[in-house]
Write a structure and sequence with these properties.
Helix content: 25-40%
Shape: globular
Oligomer: single chain
Number of helices: 9
Strand content: 25-35%
Largest sheet: 5 strands, antiparallel
Distance between the termini: 15 Å
């Protein structure tokens, strides 16, 4: 597994290690800064791990998610060039980590997303009020676990936040998105593995925050799948080409809206709420693909 050295991934790393051991799978967690890449005709020896040439894996499970940078992608691309199966693939990870680009893909496919605008601050508040409306949600282009997501309920809040953003970096682009009031403080996380929905949970805020992420103190419970939810999650995975993903859905008065998709979804709350063994599902799918 190619992972990131962040504490929020500790649960997932430990679960993969434990389940792999129970299933008799030779499994290791590797970080990008432990890898050196060479470009030569001797392709099978063009990757060094801690300075040594190693046997290539059958599968690389990519858990870099929104933290995927140039070097992570370079490692994954090198593995793919050497015919190593990467789950998900590097192109899908790169697309999904960019929230605006992934929304462009979803919109082109005709899928229901909140109205979304990419802006460089300062931006005309008249334009935002006309095209998006208030309240509105402001997001960083990349991010996870609810970080970098802000709710502006009034024009004053929007102007104050705009002033702060512009003072930090006048070239900083942000996403401005329609606020779906029906989903305030709650949403759905649906996990897809290998073209199949393995389950869903409802997340709810416990402190009045409009974000419901379990990593930010929200609570989770299992949620019964319905046809629309399952169809949307599968369509998102398909159009973003994600073998493995967490699809976040918002409740709306006409069904569901797609909030975002994560190529390396956290699943601590999901496993606790649903009792579903996520690593086992992923390992079984990888075994089919080899």
């Amino acid at each position: 597994m190619l992972g990131n050295k962040i504490t929020s991934e500790m649960y997932e790393r430990e679960r993969f290690i434990k389940v792999a051991h129970n299933m008799g799978i030779d499994f290791n967690v590797v970080f990008s800064d432990e890898i050196d890449l060479l470009v030569s005709r001797d392709d099978r020896r063009s990757i060094r791990y801690k300075g040594e040439a190693i046997a290539l894996p059958d599968v690389c499970l990519a858990r870099t998610g929104s933290g995927t940078g140039f070097y992570n992608l370079s490692v994954l691309r090198q593995l793919e060039r050497l015919n190593v199966l990467t789950l998900p693939n590097s192109a899908a990870i790169e697309s999904s980590k960019d929230k605006f680009y992934s929304n462009q893909i979803l919109a082109q496919a005709g899928l229901p997303i909140p109205k979304t605008m990419l802006a460089r601050f300062p931006v005309s508040h008249e334009l935002v009020e006309k095209q998006i409306g208030l309240p509105c949600v402001i997001k960083v282009v990349t991010g996870s676990h609810g970080a970098g997501v802000y709710l502006c309920e009034t024009l004053k809040q929007f102007l104050d936040l705009q002033e702060l953003i512009a003072s930090l970096d006048s070239k900083n682009s942000m996403i401005i998105q329609e606020y779906v009031k029906e989903s305030a403080g709650r949403d759905l996380r649906v996990i897809v593995v290998g073209g199949k929905v393995i389950g869903a949970m409802e997340r709810s805020s416990t402190d009045g925050n409009f974000r419901a992420n379990v990593s930010r103190g929200g609570v989770a419970k299992t949620y019964a799948l319905d046809d629309e939810m399952e169809m949307l999650a599968l369509q998102v995975a398909r159009v973003l080409d994600l073998d493995i993903c967490g699809v976040d859905l918002l409740f709306s008065d006409d069904g569901y809206r797609i909030c975002e998709a994560n190529s390396a979804p956290g699943f601590r709350g999901f496993e606790k709420a649903t009792g579903i063994n996520v690593p086992e599902k992923i390992f079984k799918y990888a075994g089919i693909r080899i």
